[in-house]
Amino acid sequence: MFFCVLMTINKSEAQENNVFRKTGSIPETFQPLPLFEILPSGWIREQIQENLNGFTGHLDSLVPDLILRDDIYGRNRLGRHVKSKDVGAITENGELQAQFLWWNSETQSNWRDGYLRSAILSGDQDHLARATKYMQRILATQDTNGYLGIYDSDLRYRFDNENGELWSKTTLLRGLIAWYEFTRDYQVLKTIEAAVHDVMVNYPPYTSHPFYSVNPDAGGITHGLAFTDVLEELWRITGKQEYRDYCIFLYRDFSEQKLNEDAQYSKLADTSLMLKSHGVHTYEHLRSVAAAFYASGNPALGTVLQNFLYKINLCISPSGGPVGDEWIAGGKADATGRGYEYCSLHELLNSYTSLLGKTGDAHFGDLTETLFFNAAQGARNPFESSIAYLKTDNSYSMCGGLNGDTTVKTQTRYKYSPVHQDVAVCCVPNAGRIAPYYVQNMWMKDEQGLVATLLGPCEVETKVRGKKVLIDEQTAYPYDNSITFVINTEDSYFTIKIRKPGWAKKVSVSEVYIEDKGYIVIQRRWKGEHPITIQFFPEIELKQDLNKEYYFTYGALVLARPIQSIGRQTKTYPLKGFRDMQYRPSGLSILEYADEPVKQTNQKKAEFATSLYNPVSHKNEAVILLPLGQTILRQLTFKPKSEDQ
Predict the structure, then answer these.
(1) Does the pLDDT value for residue 1 go beyond 90?
(2) Fewest C-beta atoms under 10 Å: which of 121, 261, 308, 623?
């Protein structure tokens, strides 16, 4: 189902003892474009600007203690003398060792990553000026030996338990790489390479154990496997194979330690084991396993990657949201009984796009679009700048607990907030990252030319075979399914491939084309300005989830019945316009599928009408169906009509 390189694995080779032995690295099918070469337009640009005007642009002011006053990478680095720190969550009182106090590095650097990328993509000069000042300050924190991180010399690289050494670097360096791509400032690249070299010296391959922990529950340590993100980006930028090869070592050591993590090799090799770990770890580790496989070429790693994808598929809800509230806990997706964390939405999207580039498999584009257009939009407050830390597809209440459950008094994640400081300031930073990461993967390159891998409004300016190419992708997709690509270039011969969504049974293209492996392929000589119009023809589709409940889709959109709600403000912030909100239904009835037709009521909007069965009144009720992103409380799945009693 997934990609051909996995389907051709020699099973006898996969059973060799040394599953991490490098047999020959695998080339990536597509190459990503530098961040600044793709700029959002239309509704995606508006959303990124809204984030800058909202929580992404103001998080440092909303939680200054965590971001501005804790210079964790500089003067407030952690040493053995540090016993406590405000890490942005309400927890039980108690003294903690310094190596546990990495949380603020994640809050700061994931936020900065999204903020930097949003400033670049929006072109907002005020935010770019702020970003420049930050970069000057953070670059100055690097030690002469290359160390860039959160620990003093008495603690760094010497751990036997929980720590954030690799994770704090990962979150920081991802943002620095984005800034380098934008500025092409060699000093920034030099800083990044020196920091990575320092890691490789202090954690030498195959003679050190960066993932060793006396405690198998070590979230900071295991987050650190995502350091493969930095390594792969550096390999693409510099061409230095040592960075890619280090991914194999990291995954091997991660797999050989006693850790409670799903992505370890032995656990992935056992297809009977369900996923259990903290969701965001599991979904970000997907791309680390893929990085190790592509770096090594070892068929055994290809097998467990395929197993990993199979297991994750069991955890995906109709909206594309992956189970993780916050642990997967061995359960499958459930539209009502299981939630997904916004952090997990971003990390799985990032993993899907990584696999899309590696494999070229158009299916990963479908998975990415489903997640971004539905689960990610459906966990944003459509009326103000805040997000849900946890959200369910069937969302009947957002008052702290899962769909009104009050048995867990400390559960507050099911609400809308621009911060979520009572739990952890992790999801809001990632909510600022997800749209920029979608944008930067909308176009890629291959040996033949350019590839529109993800669809939506954007502008591209790049070079193909040394000649400048401009593309204006004009569309309101997925809310409208007509796309015009205006290509402007010098006299040049190359191919443009446009991913055909898996749902598109019928398509019209204003140009001679062929279809190949899920892509519309147009190969010709281009000169001057040349428009191409593509029309996809969606239909209302009736589908069933893992629990055999029905739901409706229209093109890339998942539809839901909105439930009228009553909002209650539970917290305000010194900055005007920011608040925490809870929502309860003003009247709740759970309707069932009635096998009635669905009709579009507005040709300019994705708005539909149908009838659903009310098992209390024993009558059908007329309802409106809307895209998930336009709802707060909603019913997305519908059980088969019950028999009247």
Answers:
(1) no
(2) 623
The dihedral formed by the CA atoms of 465, 467, 468 and 473, expressed in degrees to the nearest 10: -50
**Residue 403: inside a domain, yes or no?**
no
277 assigned to some structural domain? no
Instruction: Check: CB of residue 641 under 8 Å from CB of residue 574.
Output: no
- What is the signed CA dihedral for 154, 157, 158, 163, rounded to 10 degrees? 100
448 and 523 in one domain?
A: yes
For residue 122 the two structure tokens come to 């929006």
Q: To which residue do tokens 């040493």 refer?
A: 79
Domain-embedded: residue 3: no
DSSP per residue over 343-357, as a string? HHHHHHHHHHHHHHH
pLDDT score at 88: 59
276's enclosing H/E stretch is none
Residues 501 and 544 in one domain: no
Same domain, 605 and 549: yes
Residue 512 CB burial class (10 angstroms; 0-12, 13-18, ≥19): exposed
For residue 172, give the nearest of 104, 83, 121 by alpha carbon: 104
The alpha carbon torsion through 442, 444, 448, 452 (nearest 10 deg) reads 0
The single residue listed with the structure tokens 């056992």 is 270
Mean pLDDT of 446-452: 98
DSSP assignments along 507-539, one per residue: EEESS--EEETTEEEEEEEEEEEEEEEEEE---
**Full domain range(s) for residue 458:** 443-477+482-536
Assess whether pLDDT exceeds 60 at residue 470: yes
| C-alpha closest to that of 14 among 25, 4, 23, 3 | 23
CA distance 539 to 534: 16
Angstrom distance (rounded) from CA 171 to CA 148: 12
Dihedral sign of CA atoms 616, 620, 623, 626 in order:
positive
CA distance 599 to 113: 42
Q: How far apart are CA 282 and CA 327, in angstroms?
A: 10
Neighbouring-strand partners of residue 69 = none
Give the residue carrying structure tokens 């190359």.
494
Task: Indicate whether 448 and 499 sit together in one domain.
Answer: yes
The predicted structure's pLDDT at residue 86: 65
Q: Kind and range of the H or E element at 387?
A: strand 387-388
Q: Tokens 């943002």 belong to which residue? A: 175
Q: Mean pLDDT, to the nearest integer, of 519-546?
A: 97
Strand 340-341 relative to strand 390-391, pairing: antiparallel
For 454, half-sphere exposure in the C-beta direction (CA atoms, 13 angstrom radius) is 32
pLDDT at 2 over 70: no
Please give the structure tokens belonging to residue 161.
């338990």
pLDDT tens for 551-606 read 999 999 999 999 999 999 999 999 999 999 999 999 899 999 999 999 999 877 89
Q: What is the pLDDT of residue 183?
A: 97
pLDDT tens digits for range 135-169: 999 999 999 999 999 999 999 999 999 999 999 99
Look at residue 81 in the predicted model and tell me its pLDDT.
82
Question: Can you give the pLDDT at residue 409?
Answer: 86
Residue 583, strand partner residues:
398, 567
d(CA 195, CA 157): 13
Q: Contact, 592 vs 640, CB < 8 A?
A: yes
Residue with tokens 């830390």: 389
Strand partners for 309: none
Residues 6+ apart with CB under 8 A from 571: 417, 579, 580
Residue identified by tokens 């428009």 is: 531
Q: What is the CA radius of gyration of the chain?
A: 24
Model pLDDT, residue 93: 40
The confidence score (pLDDT) of residue 602 equals 84
